[in-house]
């Protein structure tokens, strides 16, 4: 399905600068992922395995941003734009943002 990140990016793009990158998509150049990790203040991934992959591929960047990377623990079971997914995303992302204030 792979609809979580695009749904999240679309939901929050009017309030924040967002970018959705599929770390398992071979068509996204590794240097683009690295640049995005370095550029953005906050990195949010959907699952722990995504964070593990980032730490393996980009250990220095992840180490430097360790306190700015969050895992939402949202399984890939939703359709694009699904209301339940939007509710879960809103709740979890707002919790992260509140903790940063």
Which features does this protein show?
101 residues; two-stranded parallel sheet
What would a concise description of this structure say?
It is built from 5 helices and 2 strands.
Order of helices and strands: HHEHHEH
Provide the residue-averaged pLDDT. 90
Measured on Cα atoms, how large is the radius of gyration?
13 Å
Strand residue content? 5-15%
What oligomeric state best describes the polypeptide chains here? Answer: single chain
Number of helices: 5
Looking at the structure, what is the overall shape? globular
What is the domain total for the residues? 1
Largest sheet: 2 strands, parallel
Helix content: 40-55%
Number of separate strands: 2
Give a verbal description of the structure.
- With 101 residues, the protein is mainly alpha-helical.
- The chain has one domain.
- It is 52% helix and 6% strand.
- It is built from five helices and two strands; from the N terminus they run H-H-E-H-H-E-H.
- It has helices spanning 4-12, 30-39, 48-57, 59-64, 83-100; strands at 43-45, 69-71.
- Strands 1-2 form a two-stranded parallel sheet.
Write the layout of secondary structure elements.
Layout: H1 4-12, H2 30-39, E1 43-45, H3 48-57, H4 59-64, E2 69-71, H5 83-100
Parallel strand pairs: 1-2
Helix pairs in contact: 1-5
């Amino acid at each position: 399905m792979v609809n979580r990140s695009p749904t999240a990016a679309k939901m929050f793009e009017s309030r924040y600068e967002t970018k959705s990158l599929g770390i398992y998509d071979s068509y996204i150049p590794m240097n683009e992922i690295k640049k995005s990790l370095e550029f953005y203040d906050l990195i949010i991934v959907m699952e722990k395995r995504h964070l593990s992959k980032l730490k393996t591929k980009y250990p220095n960047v992840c180490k430097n941003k360790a306190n700015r990377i969050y895992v939402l623990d949202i399984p890939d079971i939703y359709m694009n734009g699904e209301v339940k997914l939007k509710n879960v995303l809103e709740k979890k992302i707002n919790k992260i943002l509140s903790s940063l204030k």
